User: Fold these one by one.
Assistant:
Number 1:
Amino acid sequence: MRRAVCPGSYDPVTKGHLDIVRRASRIFDEVIVATGVNVSKSRFFSPEERLGMLETATADLPNVRVAGFTGLLTDFCRDNDVHAIVKGLRGSGDFEYELPMAQMNAHLADVETVFIPADPAHSFVSSSLVKEVASFGGDVAAFVPDFVLERLNARAAERSRGA
Ligand code: PNS
């Protein structure tokens, strides 16, 4: 069984993420989309909300399941018999950011990182940018599934009211 993990913050999941997950699901027997904690990023959605959105967004992919993790990604890989970490690369900035993590993860566990080049249509899309634009009332409908857009706009409105 070739099992891979697509780790990320997914705060929230974007169409760019989903393109990578879908393409990984064609390469591996099983793909686990795992929401982790990036200590350097502030969060819009709770872990439970992010997991729920990922479950809905990947429901059409039979060999994909969703999980959360809190500690090291390599511990998650060991516990789940995962030997491949899949990451999307939008450009050289992503590569600079991802390479040391891939090397550290390979040092920590028997796991390879596989990079999939992003579709150019998604090369400028990130959760951070989508949240920022939505927070100021901008239109991000092209970049997230419709049900995520509703949640995002509702959360942005709550936050602007200070709720
Ligand atoms: O979507 P992101 O924010 O780029 O995801 C980053 C994430 C959550 C995949 C990364 O921060 C991570 O793997 N965190 C778990 C803790 C860990 O293993 N850190 C060491 C990485 S070498």
Number 2:
Amino acid sequence: MERRLAAKLAATAVAAAFAGGAAAQDKAVKVGFMLPYTGTFAALGNAIENGFRLHLQEQGGKLGGRAIEFVRVDDESDPSKATDNVNKLIRRDQVDVLVGTVHSGVAMAMAKVAKESGTLLVVPNAGADAVTGPMCAPNIFRTSFTNWQPGYAMGEVMAKRGHKTAVTITWKYAAGDESVKGFKESFAKVGGKVLKDLTLPFPNVEFQPLLTEIAALKPDAVYTFFAGGGAVKFVKDYAAAGLGKTIPLYGAGFLTDGTLEAQGDAANGLLTTLHYADGLTNPKDKAFRLAYAKTYKLQPDVYAVQGYDAAQLLAIGLGAVKGDLGKRDAMYAAMAKARIDSPRGAFTLSPSHNPVQDIYLRKVEGKANQVQSVAVKALADPGRGCRM
Ligand code: BEZ
């Protein structure tokens, strides 16, 4: 009698465990999207979410067999609100995964909380070198770039084009500083000299006094990092000041990505370096562009690609554990060794979880950032300071 009771209890426990597991897998994975939906980077945040949703739609609304629930927070690209915002997503909304963000300062706050809490974080834009440097962690991944990568590629391009002196101009925050640092590293290797680093606070756009200074310094060329609404105004102001005719302007590709409609003729002919371009010939990009245009009645940009790839990476992780978020180690192992079939061209992740990717040289031709060549093949960020 006792044996039969024990057997029955055990059977009930097993059934309950199965039912519980199945119920957990049936529930949607809660993804907290912390992105800028207002301010100078609003268009970038929207493009990232569009890209993510496009991949989800292509997978029939599930990633790795699990439905996805969206919890959205507008981070306003404001680092002072970032820790509160991310804590709300984790504690109040109980998200399983964080996806964000665009602004490097906000991303560093997210990475700190993700590291401390062990919540999976996928960064679909912000290039803060530290996120896959000293702050790296098994649960932190990036599907975009480090600020160092496009800057480093452009230093080589400008040197090869015969420029010996340069002035840099950017916003004074992590992304601007690190982009300029990457540029200077390769420009200096071949004897290039930076005459002056000019900055203004993020997200200010009063460029006039700095443009006057550039005219007085007379460098061979200018290197810049601006993005979003600020990039639109900078390119227009540079052209209006007449500088475009005498001092060529170069930049990390954010200067002209997603901005060309608004920049008009002022952007024509600009050369930039980035991990995406118009005119790529890989089949994945062709299919992606068609699907994106059909779904959103918009042309995609680099931000849409990065959001799409964030969904692809999450799908690989969830797929490897059949949607079981309890198997974190196996999920992260699958993500770390993933090969992402991206519209930018296939890429893998470095040991610190940042894309190893081709950086393209692009030229603005009308409304396109037309690919010219691969500026640096399979460029890996050095991941300085990462211990995992
Ligand atoms: C950043 O803050 O890391 C960033 C913002 C916009 C475009 C690229 C990088």
